[in-house]
Each structure stands twice: as structure tokens, then as C-alpha cells.
């Protein structure tokens, strides 16, 4: 589970533990134990427990002995014993609760336990951070090399030791893999000590984390540590459809949550007859089709009419089975059937076709009307335009008009259209009327 301060962002990056948004898959409060003894003092004369719990990448936790009597608290970064060199981790639990956790995980606190060297210095933290930055590109390159050697394996994660002297490769495989050549290539490519560790598919999902179909973080990556085997019978007892896509989790195996309510279902099924129970009647034999565990009902159908089901209570089924053992047949199971209330069919109105399919479409914009009207004959008279006369010309007198000749007029002599004085032809060139302004012919001066 992510810490509360991860939701507080500054410039797009969450604050939290400075992992920049990788809290769900980078051990931020992952499998954390609540220290409810933190505000309670020890009895007088009793020394605090000398072992602490240290967390590493992706929820890996180990126990170490504080031989140097360091003052440690939850969240301190420490340098721990490793082979070879040292590792760097974060303290997650101190005090008497560590003894409880060691007993829970089967670790003897009186035996040989690795020790803590010191609190990590800034140099140790820098080396640790640089090694963590190399893990992702190294994982991509390692997968390419495994594919080149045609090995049936999947490299899921890489974890560097705190001092950068060793890299542990976590992989999954269905069968045994001969990766001797792969280790040589890794050592030559990455120039570090290589350790290969095989994990199961459930452990892989627990290390990497993810979101389940329920919308929550995976149980195995937050609180579940006991990976029990899950069978398809668990789905049958709970009357679930055997759909592999719905029953499988992120790891590709059956979901661990199928076992959560299995014991409750098994206790409820103790009072039910078996699914293979047959009821012998004079009307015919009836077989069980389905059961409802919570309501205590069973559905039966005749072998010659599977379309019609009859509901019986568990006590009634047991009574019929007891009569059949005495070689007594009942008339029909309808006599024992539970009266089912038939719901009245609701009179729904068919609204198909009542509304237009284009009711949400935007209407087309109408064109603006053209207010410019052609001038009439009376208006042309007022403007001084000459009237057009339709003259009747006798046949044979329609001669083509002579073509106009563009005569070149010498400069300074002018032409036929040359005004007699300056500004004489200015009134002949009238401006076009304004379309936006209504025309008022009465107020217009006559020429």
C-alpha cells in the first residue's frame, strides 16, 4: 500500500519517500508490520531486543542483529552484512515485535543471525542509488541475451547489492533451464558477479505488484505471504463458472481469493444432498440442475423435459430420497415444489422511432437574405438613366455593329471622353449602395 504523502505532489512528482511514484512496486509500506509497542517503554532493567527487521527491494525482508548497539528507529538506512561485501536496506521494525516476526517465519533468534555494520553514510547511499538506476536497462539487455540463446525462461526482476558488487537475477521457468552459458555472457556483459534465483509465478506477481480484477492492489504484494495451492474444485463448491479468464489472476494461476470463503461454503454444503442425487417418481426420474447455498434451495428437472425446472427445499429433497431408499416412488415432484411467485411483466413502452435521430445535431445556419433589389424603371428615371426602346427593325436590316477600334491618342490631346473641365465626369461614377443601410428613394436627391 502506498504511503499517505504520495498523493501530495509537487511539480507532477509525488513526495512520499522520494521514489517518484513507484511506491506500489518499490516496497513503500509493503508488508509493513504496525509497531503498536512504539510508544510503550520497557520495564525497568530490561534491555531492548537486539535484532531488527530490514527491508530491501520489492518486499524482501531479513533479520539482522544489532551488535554495535546502534540507536535505530524505523526508516533508518543501514549497511548490513552480505556475501561478499555489504548490502543497504531500510529498518522497518525494532523492539519486541521483531521476536514475534522471527518466530512467525521460523527464524531462531538465538542462532546465527547476520549483523548490522553501521548506519549508511552518504557515500553508501549514492553507490546504492547508482546501482538501482542500472537495474532497468540491465533487465532489458538480459532478456535480449536470453532470447538470443533460445532459453525458455523469463527474467522478471534484477536486484543489485547495496555496494554494487553482485546482481541477483530473478526468473521464472516451467522446466529446468541450463543457463551456464548465459551466466558467462552476463558476467562478461555487465562486469559484476551474477546470481540466478528461480521464483514461482505467484512469487513473481508478489514481487512486481499490480492491480487485480477487483480494482485493488494484489493481495500477494500487500499482505498475503502464505501461498496455498488453489484447485478448480474451490470454484465448483462456490457455484462459479469455470471460465479460466475470470478465475486466473495476474500470475496466470487460479486466484488466491478463491480460498478465502471456501471453508464457509463447505460448512454450508454439509446439509445438502449431493449434486448427483436422483429423485424417482411415477412421472419420471428427476436430476439436480443447480443449488442455492444461501437460500437452501435445489432445482430439479425431469430427464424427459429439461426445459422445465422445479424448486425444492433441502428438507423436501431429503424426504424424497428417504422414500426412494424404501423403494417408494412419489407421484410427482410438483407436489413438493415450492410455490414460486411469478413476477408481473412490466409493461414497457417501445420508444424506438419516437425521437428523431438528428435531434442532437446542430441546425444548419440559414443564409442571410439578399436585400439588394434590382432597380425598377421609375427609379432609373429618377436617377437619369435613359429608357430602353425596343425598336422593330425590318428583315434584312440587322447589320452587325462595327468593331471598336482602340485609337492611340497623342499625349496632351485627349480623347472623346476627355472632360471639358476638371471634375465634370465625377458625378457619373456613382458609388454602389450600402447593403446594410436601407435605401430611401424618397429622400434621395434628383439629378
Automatic annotation (TrEMBL):
Q: Where is the composition biased (Basic residues)?
A: 364-374
Identify the stretch annotated as signal peptide in this record: none
PSP1 C-terminal domain location, by residue? 114-199
Q: Which domain of life is it from?
A: Bacteria
| Region listing for Disordered, in residue ranges | 353-447
Gene Ontology cellular-component annotations: cytoplasm
Cross-referenced PROSITE patterns: PSP1_C
Residues crossing the lipid bilayer are none
User: Which segments show compositional bias classed as Basic and acidic residues?
Assistant: 375-390, 438-447
User: Which NCBIfam families does this one have?
Assistant: RicT_YaaT_fam
Identification of the protein by name: Cell fate regulator YaaT (PSP1 superfamily)
